[in-house]
Amino acid sequence: MKFLPAIILLMILFFSCNQKQEKNQENVVAPLDKLKAGNEKFVSGHPVHPHETLNRIAELKKGQNPFVVVVSCSDSRLPPELVFDQGLGDIFSIRTAGNIIGNYELGSVEYAVEHLHCKLIVVLGHENCGAIQAYAASENENHHDDHIQALVNYIASEEEEKVIPDSLKSNIDLLVKANILHGVNLLTSSGPVLKPLANKNEIKIIGAYYDLDDGKVLFDK
Asked: In the 8-state DSSP scheme, what is residue 8?
């Protein structure tokens, strides 16, 4: 009987260590794996909607620690927090029509990387993107008297779009994926912050494509 307290103590230590190991394993899950797992839940129709409580709001008042930057289209059909089944404070989300990246967007990405320590950046485009359709319909002519023309002009200036033969300019999916690639290339080559970190593999920048038919996100890598 005198050994009973020692046995109990060992059992407590054993279970405590196991719990710590499990928690550490959860913390080291790669950001990309988190996104993939979240999208699988979304597509299956069984999202868990994490981090949506009042407690989470109170916790975030102390500071934010998103695990990923997602540069995506403003299209209402693909809010990143929903399609990746994430919650408040999980995604540093930057959204513009056609997931276009200018100086303001670059500054936002740099902030997330330098100050919030995000290691993964995803450029998320999608099927039947309206901005890309506007570009395809323009046929290199000015069809808009408003600021939409600026979006069309930006997409038309992308080298990744220019190399596509005119005979294929009606293939919206091809244009969308070229636009995604442009975003990845732009971020990867952007100085003074992102390029050195990407070259040293300290951050990962990838493209992704959202399928409107089934909600799946296809990643480039």
From this structure: H
Burial class (CB in 10 A: 0-12, 13-18, 19+), 21: exposed
Query: For 6-16, what is each residue's pLDDT tens digit?
Result: 555 555 555 55
φ, ψ (nearest 5 deg) of residue 120: -125, 130
Does residue 192 have a cis bond before it (omega within 30 degrees)?
yes
Strand order in the sheet with 204-210: 91-96, 68-73, 120-126, 204-210, 217-219
The model carries a pTM of 0.84
CA distance 107 to 190: 11
Angle subtended by helix axes 148-157 and 130-138, to nearest 10: 80
CA 164 to chain centre: 26
Radius of gyration of the chain (CA): 22
Q: Which one, of 169, 170, 168, 138, lies nearest residue 153 by Cα?
A: 138
